[in-house]
């Protein structure tokens, strides 16, 4: 007949000294260990004495036969108390034990176990491979404990388990694939936990939907959107777990004040204006090294804008300079270089600050915003041989930015300046000129205006160096305020789109650059990220090889390139 003895850890450690029968199975509890006066500090383990007894270092080893007999009688009496561990060859129970975790390999010496029960214990975690070596375990009850975390591989090796209960613990989530390899499961009990129904728990919703095991009804404790709802009734598509971020990808060793991306001859290029070296730097994508590399340069003086314009498979570059006049270059394909073909009237364009290109009724135009008192913002038109002045807009206003956009299907220009509110010009189809229409009220000191669309709705981002930058929406008659963005030292508030994601980046000379993403449900931008860019001046998005890159010009530091990465928060 097999002896079943419940012993404290201190007695287990002295098994050899007490010369107990070799068929005796020992189970140790930390609670009982504490009753021994803390003679031994050791995690929960099961010990089987060797076939031939050997002496061990133990306070009881040197005790008399009567003392050892008294100790065994005391242990037997503890069998009737709740704080004691009961065990057999096929099942084992831990009730109100004092240990704080189930460590790795706790049951490697009891492979015959078929049922294991933990209840009313104080441990809060289950470690990796805690139940390793239990190929025959069929029932595992870990109920009414204080478990907060479970290792993803805590149940590894339990291929025969058919019933698992983790009921009435403090679990807010479960690691993905924690039930992987447990093909025999027929019942899972997760009741009484405080599950947070977020993306980390999406996998459980999918698992419940596909598993053959019966899962008792469980409920969400948070977030407020799902509080009180049955997890069993949720669908995987209930969770919006796809997000994105801009990750640093490449750093370029030069300062720049503007950046443009363009397509020419089925290839993608980017061009940076470097004011201190007076260079237009063209980069192309290296499909082997997966980086942007130098393609060509245009040498000039105090360059602030290098604007590409493709007309009838010809590439033109409008090079705006602070000194020495502005020029137009053309790409000579036979010579494989840029050649200057035209100077821009220095009497009209004295201090250019921005260049925009556009097409109206099949004809190509560009407009230069001039920021000097003596200069004039001017529209130029391509006549088949060159670009010639088409229209001079208002003089003397020190324009800092010009934006081309369509409002209600009609071409418009918005001019920003330091001396008046942004002015809106509308294209007259009969006169083929821009007519002043109105201004944007209560928006003084706007440095630049950029537009974007969300479906059919038109928005503009207005940049202020001092004061709050704003997002406004066209309501059919005028632009109305939608959102205010705190900004100090901002010279760029750039909207752009990546697939169905709409972003706006607010740069700053005094703090980190703020990235916002448009939330169509709220009808506003939400803050999603910060980027460390020194004195940003312009941003441009380029798509290459099914990847999206954000290029950021820096006036006082290295020009930066970021990659737009999609992230699944449920993984």
TrEMBL record:
Q: Which Pfam families match?
A: EPTP, LRR_8
Q: Per the database record, which ranges form the LRRCT domain?
A: 193-242
Where does the record say this protein resides?
Answer: Cytoplasm; Secreted; Synapse
- Cellular component, GO annotation: cytoplasm; extracellular space; synapse
Broad class of the protein's primary localization: cytoplasm
Designated gene of the protein: lgi1b
Signal sequence, start to end: 1-17
The superkingdom of the source organism is Eukaryota
Q: Which SUPFAM superfamilies match?
A: Calcium-dependent phosphotriesterase (SSF63829), L domain-like (SSF52058)
GO BP terms in the entry: myelination
Q: What is this protein called?
A: Leucine-rich glioma-inactivated protein 1
SMART domains in UniProt: LRR_TYP (SM00369), LRRCT (SM00082)
Q: Which UniProt keywords apply?
A: Cytoplasm, Glycoprotein, Leucine-rich repeat, Repeat, Secreted, Signal, Synapse
């Amino acid at each position: 007949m097999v002896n079943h003895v419940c012993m404290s850890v201190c007695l287990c450690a002295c098994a050899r000294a007490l010369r107990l029968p070799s068929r005796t199975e020992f189970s140790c509890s930390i609670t009982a260990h504490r009753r021994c006066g803390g003679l031994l500090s050791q995690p929960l383990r099961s010990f089987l004495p060797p076939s031939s007894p050997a002496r061990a270092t133990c306070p009881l080893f040197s005790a008399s036969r009567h003392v050892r007999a008294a100790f065994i009688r005391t242990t037997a009496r503890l069998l009737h108390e709740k704080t004691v561990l009961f065990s057999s060859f096929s099942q084992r129970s831990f009730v109100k034990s004092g240990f704080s975790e189930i460590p790795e390999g706790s049951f490697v010496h009891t492979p015959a176990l078929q049922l294991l029960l933990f209840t009313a214990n104080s441990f809060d975690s289950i470690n990796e491979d805690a139940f390793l070596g239990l190929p025959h375990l069929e029932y595992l009850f870990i109920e009414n404990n204080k478990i907060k975390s479970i290792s993803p591989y805590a149940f590894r090796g339990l291929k025969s388990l058919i019933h698992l209960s983790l009921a009435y613990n403090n679990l807010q989530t479960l690691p993905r694939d924690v039930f992987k390899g447990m093909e025999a499961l027929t019942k899972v009990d997760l009741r009484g936990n405080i599950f947070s129904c977020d993306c980390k728990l999406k996998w459980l919703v999918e698992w419940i939907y596909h598993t053959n095991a019966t899962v008792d009804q469980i409920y969400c404790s948070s977030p407020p959107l799902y509080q009180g709802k049955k997890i069993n009734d949720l669908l995987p598509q209930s969770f919006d777990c796809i997000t994105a971020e801009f990750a640093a990808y490449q750093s370029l060793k030069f300062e720049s004040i503007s950046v443009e991306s363009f397509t020419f001859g089925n290839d993608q290029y980017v061009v940076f204006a470097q004011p201190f070296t007076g260079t237009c730097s063209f980069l192309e994508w290296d499909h082997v090294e997966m980086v942007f590399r130098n393609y060509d340069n245009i040498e000039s003086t105090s360059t602030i804008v290098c604007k590409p314009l493709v007309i009838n498979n010809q590439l033109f570059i409008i090079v705006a300079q602070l000194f020495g006049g502005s020029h137009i270059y053309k790409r000579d394909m036979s010579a494989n270089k840029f050649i200057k073909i035209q100077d821009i009237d220095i009497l009209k364009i004295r201090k250019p600050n921005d260049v925009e290109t556009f097409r109206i009724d099949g004809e190509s135009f560009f407009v230069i915003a001039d920021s000097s008192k003596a200069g004039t913002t001017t529209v130029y038109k391509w006549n088949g041989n060159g670009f010639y002045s088409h229209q001079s807009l208002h003089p003397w206003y020190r324009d800092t930015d010009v934006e081309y956009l369509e409002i209600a299907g009609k071409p418009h220009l918005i001019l920003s300046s330091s001396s008046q509110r942004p002015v809106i010009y509308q294209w007259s189809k009969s006169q083929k000129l821009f007519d002043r229409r109105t201004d944007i009220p209560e928006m003084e000191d706007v440095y630049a205006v950029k537009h974007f669309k969300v479906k059919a709705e038109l928005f503009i981002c207005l940049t202020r160096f001092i004061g709050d930058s704003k997002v406004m929406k066209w309501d059919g008659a005028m632009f109305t305020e939608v959102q205010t963005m705190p900004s100090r030292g901002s010279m760029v508030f750039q909207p752009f789109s990546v697939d169905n994601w709409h972003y706006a980046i607010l740069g700053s000379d005094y703090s980190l650059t703020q990235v916002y993403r448009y939330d169509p449900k709220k009808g506003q931008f939400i803050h999603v990220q910060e980027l460390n860019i020194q004195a940003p001046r312009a941003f441009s998005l380029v798509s290459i090889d099914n990847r999206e890159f954000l290029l950021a010009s820096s006036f006082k530091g290295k020009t930066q390139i970021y990659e737009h990465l999609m992230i699944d928060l449920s993984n």
